[in-house]
Amino acid sequence: MNKGLRQRLRRVASRQNPLVKQLRRAFARGGTTAEGCCAIESLRLVEEAIRSGLRFQAVFFRQSSVAVADRLLPQIAAQVETVLLPNEIFDSAVATETPQGVAALAKIKSFTLDDVLRPYQPLVVALSGIQDPGNLGTVLRSAEAFGASGVLLGVGTVSQFNSKAVRASAGSVFRLPVIGVKLDEAISRLRQAGLRLLATSSHGGTPADQVNLASPLAFFIGNEGSGLPRELISQMDETVVVPHPGQVESLNAAVAASILLYEASRQRRAGI
Asked: How far, CA to CA in Å, does 102 sit from each of 39, 61, 69?
């Protein structure tokens, strides 16, 4: 690391430092700070945040990870605060047991339902009561990969800023429109925008490859154990199922969402 870049690192040795406390709280709560920042960790995620055009409030480096600082500092804007922490203080603030040596408070882009519905042929994923952060992160990653216009998080769904969800999304959470909504209230907006509403089920419905998924639509996916609430199912246009001839009773919510998104993407590419 050249001397000029090294001088940018501010050494902090107190657990009570305001930025350190902010980082610790953001990881613990799994949401955003009052400044609209999300806590992220790992070299890959910080580089994904940079690639996604996010701005940083602060970037934190572990004392023993100066090689990571050497790699990242040239990519971080000069006005961003860069902090060097003793190993034990860094480890106490982050979420993982084996940290890679870099964490950050990244300023997250905000989206609205209008952003989700803006594309010509919206493809929306609406999640009800998804509680496993790994599942949520996987859905976000698949949603971006297969061209979804956005993801709606209903009441009872884990925050997209939960550290496990952020890691599982592999950076998709930085770019994909994801908003928290009351799904029963969002349904009228979806219908006004011309979307068909499809419930997903593991027990019955029309096989996904027999449904027209090329039109504007929203998949509604329920809790890993109990599925969609009855009050939502009653408002759907159709129920779709991913056929699985094996002995497995049902598919993981993230797996089912990924297969449905792939099928919708396949049909749209094929012009079905």
From this structure: 11, 5, 8
Single pTM value for the model: 0.92
Q: What is the dihedral angle through the alpha carbons of 83, 86, 92, 98, rounded to the nearest 10 degrees?
A: 100
Nearest to 123 by CA among 176, 181, 80, 50: 176
What the block records as the tokens of 151 is: 């993801």
Other beta carbons less than 10 A from residue 266's beta carbon: 14
CA distance 154 to 152: 6
The model's confidence at residue 149, banded by pLDDT at 50, 70 and 90, is very high
Identify whether the C-beta of residue 162 lies closer than 8 Å to the C-beta of residue 27: no
Tens digit of each residue's pLDDT (9 = 90 or more) over 14-66: 999 999 999 999 999 988 999 999 999 999 999 999 999 999 999 999 999 98
Report pLDDT digits (tens) over 184-211: 999 999 999 999 999 998 777 899 999 9
* Range 3-107 classified under CATH 3.40.630.30: no
pLDDT band of 271, cuts 50, 70, 90: confident
Domains of the chain by residue range:
3-107, 113-270
Q: Give the DSSP letter string of 101-163.
A: SEEEEEEPPP--HHHHH-SSS-EEEEESS---HHHHHHHHHHHHHTT--EEEE-TTPPPTTSH
Do residues 205 and 239 lie in contact, with contact meaning Cβ atoms separated by under 8 Å?
yes
What confidence tens digit (pLDDT) does each residue in 105-147 have? 999 999 999 999 999 999 999 999 999 999 999 999 999 999 9
Edge-first strand listing for the sheet containing 150-153: 178-180, 150-153, 123-127, 217-221, 196-201, 238-241, 206-207
Q: Which CATH superfamily is domain 113-270 in?
A: SPOUT methyltransferase, trefoil knot domain (3.40.1280.10)
